[in-house]
Amino acid sequence: MPQVLVNQRLLFVFAIFALLVEGLARKQSFRVRPSSVEAVVGSDVLLLCEVDDQQGDAQWTKHGFAMGFNRTLPGLPRYQMVGNAEDGVHNLRILNVSLDDDGEFQCQVTPFNNARQIRAPAVLTVLVPPSSLTIERSEASLTVQAGQSLSITCKASDAKPAAAIKWRKNGVLFTPSNEESSEVDGSKTNLKTKTSKITITPTAEDNDANFTCVAHHPALTITNIILQTSVVLDVQYPPNAPEVIDFAEDESFAAGQEKVLTCRSRGGNPLPDVYWYKNGVELDRTFEKHKNYAVNEYRFDVDSSDNRAVYECRARNAITTEPKTTSITMRVNFPPDSVVITGPASAKVGDRISLSCKASNSNPAAQLSLLVNGRTPPGTASSTPVRTENWGFTNTANVTNYLVEATDKDLVVACYAHNHPLGTTKVDTKTVTILRPPGPPIIVGYNGTHPLKSGERLSLTCQSDGGNPLATLTWFKGNTELPASGTRQHGDSSISDLDVVLQESDNRATYSCRASNDASTITLTTNVTLAVYFPPASVKVTVSPDSIHAGTNVTLQCESSSSYPAANVTWWRDGAPLLGGVEQVKDGLHHGTITSYSVAVTVGSEDDGAIYTCQASNNWAFTTHDSITLDIKYAPVFAEGALPASKEVSEGESISLNATVLAKPSAVTYTWHFGGQLITSSSVMNITNISRTDDGIYTVKATNSEGSVTKDIALKVKFAPVILTKDEKFTVNTNDSVELTCRATGLPKPTFSWHRGTEDISSKATQYDDSSVLTIQRVSASDTGRFLCRAKNEVGKDSANFTVLVNHKPVMDSSGLYERAGAELGGTGTLRCRATGSPSISFTWFTRDNTPIEAALYSRFQNRYSVSDSELVDGLATYESVLTIANVTIKDHGIFQCQAMNSHGYTNTIITLEGTTAPDAPSDLKVVNTTHDSVLLQWVSGYNGGLQQSFRIRYRSKESDYYQYADVFPGNATVFSLTRLERETTYVLAVQARNSKGESAFTSETVQATTKSWAALDEVELAISRVLEEKSSYPKVVTLAVSSAACLLIVINVVLIACVLWKRRRQNTSNGSIDKGSNKSNALEMYAPSSYNGTVNAETLSSISEKSRTSTGHEDDSVFDVSDVRPTASPKYLIDRLEPPVQYASQGPLQFTNTDAPLHPASMTQPHRNQYDLDSPYNMDLHNQGLSTLDRRGNLSSLPHAQSPLQSSYMNQFYSPDNLSMNRHNNSLTRQGYHASENPYPRTQAPKLQFPKDYIRNGSAMNSSLSPPRGGGLGYAPASPDRMSPPALPPPRTRGHPMLTTFAGDHIASSTLPMEQRGHLV
C-alpha cells in the first residue's frame, strides 16, 4: 500500500513537469497581421489584429502611446477593441474618423513566461476632400470684349492630400498651355489648398462659352461625389452696319401719306440700339431686339418738312465708339397750306380799291385764279413763283383800281390755288361791305303810367331798323354811359336790352338810347324819364338828456331817411306803440321826404336796459327799424337768488359767497361784517378751512353813487365727530364690572357703534345724547381684548380703541405647535412656550429630571441651551418664551417642562423634543369673506414637524367630483384668497400642511363657501356713492315736485303713444289683416335714420325690433322691458342701464367729479352705484339706489306777438326766419362731470324702466311746427300801417314734425355735446 501511494505521487509530478515543458515550448504570433488603410474623414474604420496562441495581454498604441488593456478604452469614446478576445481577436474600431487619427497604430501583445512580446504596425491615412471649389475672377465680372485677355482662377481648398484640378470648355476637356498651378497650406494642419489659373483671349464665337473647373481627389472617388463649378463668358463685340428695308431713292411721296421707315442691324453683343435721325435731329428710339438683330420701325405722316429731308439710321452698342450708320433722302409733293385775300373790309359807292391773292408754300408751285362776284376782273396779273422753305414755292395774283359801282349788295371776292400733281385746290373768300346809314331808335318797356318801386327790376329795349352795317346802340343815364347786354341783330334791325335794378337815385332820372354806324356821322337819340317809389333806407334815433337817472323824463327822437312817398314813423316798447308824440317832415334826397317823430317817457330803475324801437314805413317795401337801449343810473339791487338766506357747510371745507349786485354806475363798493367786525371789502367772501367758530350771521352791504343795500346770510357749520378720550386701558379682576365710555362731539350729533374684532356689539351699549357706554358685567379672562368705538355723522367719522385686561393666572397654549418640537441630530431645536395672563408672565424651563435651565447653569449643558426673555406677542396678555438647543443629540430628545407664573399663580406644561416628521393637519379652517369670484380663508397651523411648512388648498364645486388645488403663497401664510371662482357657486374646501418630510391629511370637507352674484364696488365708485349720499338730503317738497313733474311727463308720453298706436291700427285695419311678420316690418319702419349716420336699419336695432311685438291683439297694453335688450353688465352695477345701439356707443362712460352742486336726475348720463358701509372689514352692506334714465327736452318758447317789432339786434335788417329769437332749455352734460340744476332734486330709488315696445325710437327728435300767433297769423301785412298797426313778421321756417325718440334731438345747433351723451327721452 505505501508503495502504490508513492507511485501515484511520482506519476502526478511527472505530468505536471510535462505540461510545463509544453508551455515553455509554445510561441504567440499574429494570425491576421495589422495592415495600413485609408479612410475618408467622418467615416468609420476597422484595424484588424488576430493572435494565435496568445499568452500575454493585447493592447493598441497610437502614435507610440498605449491605449490600455481595457477593451472599452476609457477616455477614448470613438475607439473600441472588438472581437472575441478568447479567440485572440483584437480589432480596433474607430468611429467618425478625424485628422487627429492620421498616423501609425500598433497592435501589441505583452510577453508571458517564455513567450516573447509581439507587435505589428498599421498606418491610418485620413483622406479629407476639398471643403470648397470656387472660381476666383481676376476681373470685376466675366463680361469681356472680344480680343481682350481674361484670366480665370479655380481654387480647391483644405484637402488631404491636395486635389487635382481639370478644366472643361463646353463639356470638353480643355488643357491650355498657359495653365498655372500652385499648392499652399490649408486653414488647418496637414490640409492643402490647390490653385489653377488659365488665361484665354476670347473671340465672338466664345460668347456664352461654359468653362468648368473639376476637382479630382481619392476621397471624392470613394464617396462617389463630383465636385465642380462653372462660369459662362459674356463676350461683347460690335454690330454690323444697319440697312433700310423697302425704300427706293427715286420714289416720291404725297404730303399726308403714311410712311414706315424700317432700319435693321444684325449681330453685336449686346444687340445694338437702333435710332432714327432727321436732318441730324433724333426722331425715334423705339426699337425692338430679336435673337440676333435689332430693328426700328418709324411710322409717320409725310408733310412738307420731309421734302429733301435726310433720314439717317444709327446702330451702336456698349463697345462701339462711333455708331454704324446709313441714310436716305425723301422727295415729297405738297399743296399750299393756305390762300389769303387782302383788301379793304368796306367801301362806299364810287371808291377804287385794290385786291391781292397769295398762295403759301407748295411743291410744285400753285396756279391762282382771282374772281369778284364770280368774274375775273380786268387787269388781273400773276407773279413769278418764288422758292421758299422745304424746297417749295409761293405765288401771287393782283387786281388794282377796281371801281365800286352802285349796288344793294356787298362785293364777294374769291381766290383759287390749284396743285395739279396732287389734284388739290385751296380756296379763300372775302366780303367787301357797302356802307348805308341806320333808322332812328325807339324805347319800349316803360310808358310812365304806373309807379315803379325801388328794388324792382326794370327791363328796357331799344330798336333801330335798317342801315349797313346795322346800327350800334348805346344806353345812357343822364350823360353817363351804362353797361348794357350788347347789341343783337334780328333781321334788318339792331336791338339792345337794358336791365336796371331800380334805386332811390332812379327817381326822376332820364334814360336815353343812341344809334350810330360807319355810314353816317350823325348820332340818333331817344329817351324816357322814370318815377320810382322807395322806402326809408334807415332811421336815426337819439335820446336826451345824455345822462339818465331813475325817476326822470326822457325824450326819444326818431328821424327817417329820405323816402318817396313820405314814411310813417312810430315808437314801440315790448310790442306796444308809444302815442302822443310830435311828427315833422322836410325834403330829402332823390326828390323824397324826411319824416321825424319824438315822444317823452318817464323812466325808473326797472327800465334800465329797456329797448325802444323806432319803425319807419311807407307801404311800398320793407319796414326799417332801429333801437336804443336806455342806460339808467340806479342804486344797487341784489339779483333774485344771488345769495341764499342761509347756507350749510361742513367743517374743513371752503365756501365762496358772491354778493354781486345790479347797479348803475357799476362802480360798487362792498363790505362784509361778522360779529360787528369788517371781514372783507370785496364782492366775494371766501372762507377756507371752515371751523365751527365760523358759524353765525354774515352781513353784506353794496354801495354806489346812487345809494346802498344790505343783506344777512346765516352760515351753519357742520363738523365730523371727534371722540374725546382715546386708547384708554382698563385692568380689572375676574368677576368685576367695567364701563367703557365713548364721548364725542359733532354736528349733526353723531351715532355710536361698538365692535370687538369683526363682531358688532352695539346692541349691548347704552346710547346717550353725546356718548355711548358699554358695560361688561362679571368679567372673565375671555373678556381680555380691544373694544372699538365708532362715532359717525353725515360729515365724517372717528374711532377709538378701549383695552380691557382681566387679571388671572397664566393659561397655557396647548395647541400642537406648542406641545411638540422637532430637530435633526446636530441641528438646532427650538421649543416655544406660550401663555396668556395678567399681569405680566415670567417663564422657567426644566429638563426631564426637573433641572432648571437658567443662565447660571448653561455650562452644565455645554452651553448648548439658552432661554429667551418673556416677550409680549399680542400687545395684550399673551407672552412667549423660547428654549433654543444647539447641536442636538439623541440625549436631548425627550420631554421638557415649561412653567408660566405671575402674581395670580402658575401653570406648567410638557413640551416634547423629537426628530423631524411630517406636519400635523391644520385646524379651525373657516371662511372669512366671499366675493363674486374669490373666497378668503383662514386656518390655524398645526405642529410643523420641526421644519418649515407650507400649505395647499383643495377645492371643488359642490356639484363636481373633480378637485382643484392651489398652493398658498407665501407658503407659511395662514390666510389666503382663493380667486378665479365662478359666480353663485358653492365650493367644498380643505387645507393640507406640507414640509420636506411629507404632508398631512386634508382637513375634513365640512367647510363650504358660496360666491356672490355681484361684484364689489371699487374705490372710485365708493367715493361717488358717498357724494351721492351726502347730497341726498333735499327737502321733501322738492322731491314731491319733481315726482309730480315726472308723472305728468309720463302721462303725456302715454297719451302720445296711444294716439300713434290708434292711428297706425286704423291704417293697418284699412290695409287688411296683420300678421307677426308685418308687425315686425312696421316696427322696423319706425327706426328712422338718425343724425349719427342716417343708415339705421333693422339689423342695427335687431335686439329691440325682435322683441318689439308679441301679438297683434294687445299692442296698446304691451310693455317694453329694458332688461330684454340690455347687454349683460357686470353685477357690480346695482341698477340697470339703457344702452344706445352699438353704432352710437363711440364715447366712453362719463366720469363724474365731486362738486358742491346737488345732483339732478337730468344731469346724469348713466346710473350710479350707491355707497355701502366699509366699517366691517369683511362684509359690505350694499344699499341699492340709483337714477332713472335721462330726461332732456328742448322747449321752444313762444314767438313774440305778431304785431311786435323786432328788438335791437335786428336794426336796419330785413326780417328773416333765421333772425327769430327762440329760447330753449337744455340740460347739458360734460364728459368730466355734471352741472348743477337750477332747482335741486332728491335722488330716488330707480324703478325698473318700462317703455311701450313699438315706440322706442332711435334718431333725432324734431321740433314741432311753430303755431301761428293770434291776430291773423304770421306773414300778415296790413294794407295801411300806422302807429297802431305795426308790420307783421314773416312766417318762420318749419322745423319738421313731432317724433318720439329714445335719444334727445339736436335742438340747439351750437351744442358741443356728442349725440351719445345727450340722454334718453321717455
TrEMBL record:
<dbReference type="InterPro" id="IPR051275">
    <property type="entry name" value="Cell_adhesion_signaling"/>
</dbReference>
<feature type="region of interest" description="Disordered">
    <location>
        <begin position="1258"/>
        <end position="1293"/>
    </location>
</feature>
<dbReference type="GO" id="GO:0005886">
    <property type="term" value="C:plasma membrane"/>
</dbReference>
<keyword id="KW-0732">Signal</keyword>
<keyword id="KW-0393">Immunoglobulin domain</keyword>
<dbReference type="Pfam" id="PF00041">
    <property type="entry name" value="fn3"/>
</dbReference>
<feature type="domain" description="Ig-like">
    <location>
        <begin position="636"/>
        <end position="716"/>
    </location>
</feature>
<dbReference type="GO" id="GO:0050839">
    <property type="term" value="F:cell adhesion molecule binding"/>
</dbReference>
<feature type="compositionally biased region" description="Polar residues">
    <location>
        <begin position="1195"/>
        <end position="1207"/>
    </location>
</feature>
<dbReference type="Pfam" id="PF07679">
    <property type="entry name" value="I-set"/>
</dbReference>
<keyword id="KW-0677">Repeat</keyword>
<feature type="signal peptide">
    <location>
        <begin position="1"/>
        <end position="25"/>
    </location>
</feature>
<keyword id="KW-0472">Membrane</keyword>
<dbReference type="GO" id="GO:0009653">
    <property type="term" value="P:anatomical structure morphogenesis"/>
</dbReference>
<dbReference type="InterPro" id="IPR013162">
    <property type="entry name" value="CD80_C2-set"/>
</dbReference>
<feature type="region of interest" description="Disordered">
    <location>
        <begin position="1188"/>
        <end position="1207"/>
    </location>
</feature>
<dbReference type="GO" id="GO:0005911">
    <property type="term" value="C:cell-cell junction"/>
</dbReference>
<feature type="domain" description="Ig-like">
    <location>
        <begin position="810"/>
        <end position="914"/>
    </location>
</feature>
<dbReference type="GO" id="GO:0098609">
    <property type="term" value="P:cell-cell adhesion"/>
</dbReference>
<dbReference type="InterPro" id="IPR013783">
    <property type="entry name" value="Ig-like_fold"/>
</dbReference>
<dbReference type="InterPro" id="IPR036179">
    <property type="entry name" value="Ig-like_dom_sf"/>
</dbReference>
<feature type="region of interest" description="Disordered">
    <location>
        <begin position="1103"/>
        <end position="1123"/>
    </location>
</feature>
<keyword id="KW-1133">Transmembrane helix</keyword>
<dbReference type="InterPro" id="IPR036116">
    <property type="entry name" value="FN3_sf"/>
</dbReference>
<keyword id="KW-0812">Transmembrane</keyword>
<dbReference type="Pfam" id="PF13927">
    <property type="entry name" value="Ig_3"/>
</dbReference>
<feature type="domain" description="Fibronectin type-III">
    <location>
        <begin position="921"/>
        <end position="1014"/>
    </location>
</feature>
<feature type="domain" description="Ig-like">
    <location>
        <begin position="2"/>
        <end position="125"/>
    </location>
</feature>
<keyword id="KW-0325">Glycoprotein</keyword>
<dbReference type="InterPro" id="IPR003598">
    <property type="entry name" value="Ig_sub2"/>
</dbReference>
<feature type="domain" description="Ig-like">
    <location>
        <begin position="721"/>
        <end position="803"/>
    </location>
</feature>
<feature type="compositionally biased region" description="Basic and acidic residues">
    <location>
        <begin position="1106"/>
        <end position="1117"/>
    </location>
</feature>
<keyword id="KW-1015">Disulfide bond</keyword>
<dbReference type="InterPro" id="IPR003961">
    <property type="entry name" value="FN3_dom"/>
</dbReference>
<feature type="domain" description="Ig-like">
    <location>
        <begin position="440"/>
        <end position="529"/>
    </location>
</feature>
<dbReference type="Pfam" id="PF08205">
    <property type="entry name" value="C2-set_2"/>
</dbReference>
<feature type="domain" description="Ig-like">
    <location>
        <begin position="536"/>
        <end position="629"/>
    </location>
</feature>
<dbReference type="InterPro" id="IPR013098">
    <property type="entry name" value="Ig_I-set"/>
</dbReference>
<dbReference type="GO" id="GO:0030154">
    <property type="term" value="P:cell differentiation"/>
</dbReference>
<feature type="transmembrane region" description="Helical">
    <location>
        <begin position="1037"/>
        <end position="1062"/>
    </location>
</feature>
<feature type="domain" description="Ig-like">
    <location>
        <begin position="130"/>
        <end position="232"/>
    </location>
</feature>
<feature type="domain" description="Ig-like">
    <location>
        <begin position="336"/>
        <end position="433"/>
    </location>
</feature>
